[in-house]
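FORM 12-B: Structure-to-Sequence Request
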């Protein structure tokens, strides 16, 4: 049992000689426990060097080994749900020496990625997609006459997502050769452990049981009442010792529960199941953080870690540490508690992101008004709509990238009925090391086209608090989007004040160029404006726009520049362009934002610089446009 993350690379001779899954399958089965130990040690070391998710990966070391040992990967396809647990998979599939680049710009992704390796059969990052994807692969293989197998590995948390059950329901109708591995890490689904359960799991996975089962079905199918009685008797026998009745009713052959750290049992069970026809479900129990004592004791805190930095040398002089700036999710969490104290109608909702959204204190203090609906974004939004119908004031705390999953509900169930729901949209813009799957690059574009929506983009910490209050007091659907991490350090006013809707704030008066900033790039805009002597406006509201101020700026400046950490297409800058067009105002307009491609992983500031959204990039883009404007126009012939 490891108690500390190793700072020096451990000795892993067996792992070092295993460069791919093909070489893994050449090992004797008796060597695999040693390989598991080495893999676990190397995983801890490598994540300590880079930071990243590792608790889930520690829990699936044996399962990952067993799957690659039994299945002919990459021809047989493994689909890892969400992808937090994929690091052992990456290490075993030819990327061990690249782990030092994990989540760094130009390095390995923190999630499975099809362009990175043929072993990554499907790109993931959002929850509950694996069964649908693997089912599609299984059906596609069958249509081609291929014998390749598809396996979806899904956690008990991801299994709460509605999409997972939609896929389970469909799978039975296809009769596809699909294996779903339910990785129950003992944090969500109730347990059913013990010798009897393990005994039955071994029986149900055995070839003898399978042959008897098939033979009995053929005989009893001629006596319908007897066949139905036998089928139900079998299901209820399983239900007595395992939580598999639901999956059997959906048309899956349920096997389990199996100890996910017992390599011989795992390998034997998977070998037996690999050649079974039709939808199969293997239920395994694992321990998140397995083999690392701190993670075993506190799996939530050790879900992911930052890079382990060496201890700095002690300095002889004492220095006063600067006060730590609050993260935006803390600002939201503090506001939520203050607002709940002031208004008993407030109800807080999260789709399984309590901690990440800053709702821990609210959940403890206002438990009766707190609802974690699990990984079910669609349900979260329509649930909020139902609450609003009864006069409640629901606040949905949701990541920008996950709100995409509930777009129909946002339009049909909330906005169409003009219901009083506030969306607190976290992780807006780029998110750094988590990459494209988690970037909030599109919310301004998909929100502002919806009738009845009030859309706000605060520039700093205090404005976030005040705009949350503004949206909460607004009668109708409203959204406030804010980024991951900390802001510029603006003093946060305890007093909550509803800002005038659609009213921007002039932050700097200049000449020739006016920068209209939507959101937290304001500090970079102000720095660039100092060098340009440009006007800077904190727009605050994406919908409705401050049209009167835009008219005034258009009349007094030669170039309008819009700035946002959102896709340019359809974003806030597009809204300004559309307004100018409606007014018949013809003038130069430069839209700065995220380019028309998915931004990969890396440090947030580096990614902004690559997109031209840091001070230097903003300055360069404006100067280039001014140079272009100064060129004489060619005369039309």
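FORM 12-B RESPONSE
SEQUENCE OUT:
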């Amino acid at each position: 049992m490891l108690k500390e993350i190793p700072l020096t690379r451990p000795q892993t001779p067996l792992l070092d000689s295993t460069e791919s899954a093909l070489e893994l399958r050449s090992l004797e089965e008796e060597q695999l426990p040693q390989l598991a130990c080495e893999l676990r040690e190397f995983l801890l070391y490598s994540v300590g060097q880079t930071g990243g998710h590792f608790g889930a990966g520690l829990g699936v070391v044996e399962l990952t080994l067993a799957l690659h040992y039994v299945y002919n990967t990459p021809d047989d396809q493994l689909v890892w749900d969400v992808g937090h647990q994929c690091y052992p998979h990456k290490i075993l599939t030819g990327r061990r020496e690249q782990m030092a680049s994990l989540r760094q710009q130009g390095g390995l992704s923190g999630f499975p990625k099809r362009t990175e390796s043929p072993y990554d059969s499907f790109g993931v990052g959002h929850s509950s997609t694996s069964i649908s994807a693997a089912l599609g692969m299984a059906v596609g293989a069958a249509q081609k006459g291929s014998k390749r197998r598809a396996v979806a590995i899904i956690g008990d948390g991801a299994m709460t997502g509605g999409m997972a059950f939609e896929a389970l329901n469909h799978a039975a109708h296809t009769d596809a050769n699909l294996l779903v591995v339910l990785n129950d890490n003992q944090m969500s689904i109730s347990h059913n452990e013990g010798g009897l359960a393990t005994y039955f799991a071994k029986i149900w996975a055995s070839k003898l049981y399978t042959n008897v089962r098939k033979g009995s079905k053929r005989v009893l199918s001629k006596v319908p009442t007897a066949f139905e009685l036998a089928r139900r008797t079998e299901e209820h026998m399983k239900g007595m010792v395992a939580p598999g009745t639901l999956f059997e009713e959906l048309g899956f052959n349920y096997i389990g529960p199996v100890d996910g750290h017992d390599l011989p049992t795992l390998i034997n069970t998977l070998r037996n199941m690999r050649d079974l026809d039709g939808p199969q479900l293997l239920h395994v129990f694992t321990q998140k953080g397995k083999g690392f004592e701190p993670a075993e004791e506190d799996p939530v805190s050790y879900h992911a870690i930052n890079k382990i930095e060496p201890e700095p040398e002690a300095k002889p002089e004492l220095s006063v540490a600067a006060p730590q700036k609050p993260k935006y999710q803390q600002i939201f969490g503090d506001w939520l508690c203050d607002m709940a104290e002031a208004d008993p109608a407030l109800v807080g909702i999260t789709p399984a992101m309590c901690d990440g959204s800053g709702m821990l204190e609210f959940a403890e203090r206002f438990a009766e008004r707190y609802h974690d609906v699990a990984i079910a974004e669609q349900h979260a939004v329509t649930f909020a709509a139902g609450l609003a119908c009864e006069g409640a004031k629901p606040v949905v705390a949701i990541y920008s990238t996950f709100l995409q999953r509930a777009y129909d509900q946002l339009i049909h169930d909330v906005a169409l009925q003009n219901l009083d729901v506030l969306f607190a949209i976290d992780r807006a813009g780029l998110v750094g090391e988590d990459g494209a799957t988690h970037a909030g690059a599109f919310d301004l574009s998909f929100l502002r086209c919806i009738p009845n929506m009030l859309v706000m983009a605060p520039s700093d910490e205090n404005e976030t608090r005040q705009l949350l209050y503004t949206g909460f007091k607004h009668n109708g659907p409203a959204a406030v989007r804010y980024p991951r991490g900390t802001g510029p350090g603006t003093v946060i006013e305890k007093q909550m004040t509803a800002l005038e809707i659609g009213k921007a704030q002039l932050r700097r008066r200049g000449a020739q160029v006016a920068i209209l900033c939507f959101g937290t790039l304001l500090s970079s805009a102000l720095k660039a404006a100092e060098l340009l002597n440009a006007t800077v406006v904190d727009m605050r509201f994406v919908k409705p726009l401050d049209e009167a101020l835009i008219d005034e700026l258009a009349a007094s400046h030669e170039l309008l520049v819009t700035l946002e950490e959102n896709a340019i297409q359809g974003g806030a800058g597009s809204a300004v362009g559309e307004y100018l067009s409606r007014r018949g105002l013809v003038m130069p307009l430069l839209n700065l934002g995220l380019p028309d491609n998915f931004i990969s992983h890396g440090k947030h500031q580096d990614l902004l610089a690559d997109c031209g959204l840091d001070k230097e990039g903003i300055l360069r883009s404006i100067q280039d446009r001014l140079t272009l404007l100064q060129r004489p126009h060619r005369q039309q012939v």
